[in-house]
Structure to design on (982 residues):
């Protein structure tokens, strides 16, 4: 029986339902099973589907297929009927779990279907009342003092286009807003300076910002993402502060790490200026995610922003993975209490489409500069409206902070129990991780977990990360912690 | 009254309906007005909406808003009630006109809603039976002998990712498929060769391939797209054959143009090899669109492909604007009757999402190389299914060829009538254009046309282009030709 027929509207009273022969209910999405159940991790149907898919595209990254009719809430059901508690949620992209009724219902409102049947070129012919839609939806969750929005499709293109906004701003700051010279216009067609100037974006070792050319040039997590591809050779990378845990026992040392990394940033800015590739923007994740769930302190972020201001460099915060409530605030950088907003903050993933918020001075001065055909995805904006509604209605930010603290406490206890295997438990809201003693150990733990019914994520050289949906509850945390503990114990 | 309530299913008998006080019917979409009607080109509601939007984003490229409740078929209705015959169709992206019932109906099938509520990370966790969906939909229209598909989001990212496929293939060809060296792995993290090798994609003057860094590096249409942004300085551009019209009177001269351009390509390949930036791929549009509706001959394309084969260079055909039936064949490059398929063919726009078809040897050899979080958009795949169904059911390719020939003939007559103003009428299917004597003349003609109710497009330095939907009929062509003629005459 299809889940689509059994799930009920958000506000209906809780009812128990039968699903895969198990009775369950949930505070947030009705119809979850009581827990995971795995028969055969890689079953015959999954194998067949993978073989079929490999006839027309690469399947080298495919782990398993998902049965969208049967997956529900925090539970991922594969076509062989294996049920997993999903703590990775499609690479951190699923805001409200699977088959959330609020999201399923959006296009039952037939007036919304026209946004699917008629996708317009937003920057030339926006739909009627487009400003009102943007204000009601995207601007209702704008980061503090960021009053402008540029809608895009995905995280990588949001970063790419935001860099262009930064370059426009930087050139204007440097040349006083004069018009382009004849030489600039001519050389630009040959991809050469001064028309296409040598300008750089500085990023951090371990960063992940996407896989198009500029977003990949600032990505510094793994060789496999970049081997064999031409990238910007002169774009610099600085060390990200990698703290010693527990933080409270390493205060002085971690402060020194901050100072060292900040000095490196200043040094690279000077070096790149001398090299003829001045730094126009610095991009950073509030928590380095793919790079290993590396947390920098609010003090580091504030000092970094000061360095940007001092050097006329745009401060770009990449919230593609950390945004939309995952940290327990709508935007993770709100935890830093920066005195002024960053110039640019990019988003995607749980936001269902990409884009960036920015300050007024980052507006382009001419048309067709920050432009492409679609400029985002209006249909998905209306799905986001449902997500935002549920986040507010169900007080999910508070919920994420509470469940996050609970989960991190449990994880910390397990780390203490196995000090030779695990270390450095850390987290903000649902963005939780711990490190393993080495990569093979991590792989074994994740494999054990999967056999017992948990889909988990890895990050950095040795870490395991959680990226659950915003409706992950303490009862799910208990299942995760129990299976995680067993998986470590069985090493 | 909303159009959504009055339009009927595709197969219902034609009925006349009233809309904006005019009676109409259409072979393809019911509910079209009898013709355009314009009260005030930039009316007060449009102005107000633009002012509202400018409070939160740039509106420097915004022409007008579109009323999606009232736009229908080939007619664009703005919020002031102006009705335009749309021959530009959202920068060539609308396949079946506005509010086509087949597209509106897709998500009335509730089983499809789950693909909107649950967007998975396609390259890790595809939905059940994903291969079957891809085969039934995308592979049913695959270009001849191109058996592999990589789904993406938009045209620019399709080109970006296809270049990476090309680089992987090229490196494998050059190094015999050996594994990465320690030096390559180390230097790759610094964006430096040999890990990130100096490799180039060759493109053509006038080309448009997108606005992310690599796609913009091969775009060579206008300075405003690129001024102020760092791009790949050593990626070469060759001359695109710009023929003299009428073709039948300039056969010898145009053959010489072909030969000259091909020699230039060979020369650039040699020069770039010497410079240490060997050409790994050549990208070309079957018809240069943004660059001026420049058509190259089938002979040129065949010779270009030969040069690629001779030099172990991938031949990349960019069908973002020309594909999905616009040329009267599903893919415009089918007109060239190439002896073997190109290595890569990219698409987007009328296809509703991006991607590229490719040959088997372009498959990556390792996982997570051609990868990103979403890898396309399953929800839009099902909308494309409806589009493909209508194209086949209604024989729209034949229709496009017939109406295209009719329109081009009419346009040619007008060009002959005004030889001092217009020249070089040209086209394939619905991809039709003519050149004006200069840019100010073009602007005046397009302004006149808009006042009389036609939305048209410009391209290249002096051309006017048509990019109508696939359901543009002779009766629409008559309206276009009549208004175009008047607009030229009133110069």
């Amino acid at each position: 029986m299809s889940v689509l027929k059994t799930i009920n509207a958000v506000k209906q009273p809780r009812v128990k339902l039968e699903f895969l022969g198990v009775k369950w209910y949930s505070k947030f999405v009705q119809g979850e099973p009581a827990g995971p159940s795995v028969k055969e991790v890689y079953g015959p149907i999954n194998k067949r589907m993978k073989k079929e898919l490999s006839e027309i595209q690469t399947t080298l990254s495919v782990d398993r297929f998902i049965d969208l009719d049967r997956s529900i809430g925090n539970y991922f059901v594969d076509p062989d009927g294996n049920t997993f508690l999903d703590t990775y949620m499609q690479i951190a992209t699923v805001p409200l779990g699977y088959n959330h009724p609020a999201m399923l219902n959006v296009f039952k409102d037939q007036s919304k279907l026209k946004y699917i049947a008629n996708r317009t070129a937003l920057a030339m012919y926006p739909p009627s009342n487009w400003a009102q839609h943007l204000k009601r939806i995207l601007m209702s969750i704008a980061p503090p003092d960021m009053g402008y929005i540029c809608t895009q499709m995905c995280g990588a293109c949001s970063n790419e286009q935001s860099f262009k906004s930064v370059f426009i701003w930087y050139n204007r700051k440097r040349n006083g807003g004069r018009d382009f010279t004849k030489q600039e216009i001519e050389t630009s067609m040959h991809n050469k300076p001064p028309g296409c100037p040598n300008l750089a974006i500085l990023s951090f070792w371990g960063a992940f910002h996407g896989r198009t050319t500029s977003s990949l040039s600032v990505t510094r997590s793994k060789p496999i993402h970049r081997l064999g591809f031409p990238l910007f050779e002169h774009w610099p990378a600085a060390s990200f502060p990698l703290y010693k845990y527990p933080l409270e026992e390493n205060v002085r040392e971690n402060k020194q790490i901050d100072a060292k990394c900040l000095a490196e940033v200043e040094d690279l800015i000077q070096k790149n200026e001398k090299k003829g590739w001045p730094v126009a923007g610095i991009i950073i994740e509030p928590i380095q995610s793919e790079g290993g769930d590396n947390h920098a302190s609010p003090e580091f972020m504030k000092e970094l922003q000061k360095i940007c201001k001092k050097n006329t460099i745009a401060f770009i915060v990449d919230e593609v993975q950390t945004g939309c409530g995952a940290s327990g605030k709508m935007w993770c950088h709100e935890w830093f209490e920066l005195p002024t907003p960053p110039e640019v903050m990019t988003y995607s993933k749980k936001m269902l489409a990409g884009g960036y918020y920015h300050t007024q001075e980052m507006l382009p001065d001419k048309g067709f500069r920050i432009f492409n055909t679609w400029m985002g995805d209006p249909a998905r904006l209306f799905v986001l409206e449902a997500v935002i509604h549920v986040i507010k209605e169900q007080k999910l930010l508070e919920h994420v902070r509470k469940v996050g603290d609970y989960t991190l406490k449990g994880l910390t206890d397990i780390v203490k129990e196995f000090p030779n295997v695990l270390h450095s438990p850390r987290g903000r809201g649902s963005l939780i991780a711990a490190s393993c003693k080495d990569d093979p150990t991590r792989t074994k733990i994740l494999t054990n977990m999967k056999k017992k019914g948990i889909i988990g994520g890895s990050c950095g050289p040795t870490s395991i990360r959680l990226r659950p949906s915003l409706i992950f509850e303490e009862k799910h945390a208990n299942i995760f912690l129990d299976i995680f503990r067993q998986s470590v114990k069985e090493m």
In short: Chain B touches chain A through 126 residues (CB under 8 Å). Chain B has 15 helices and 18 strands.
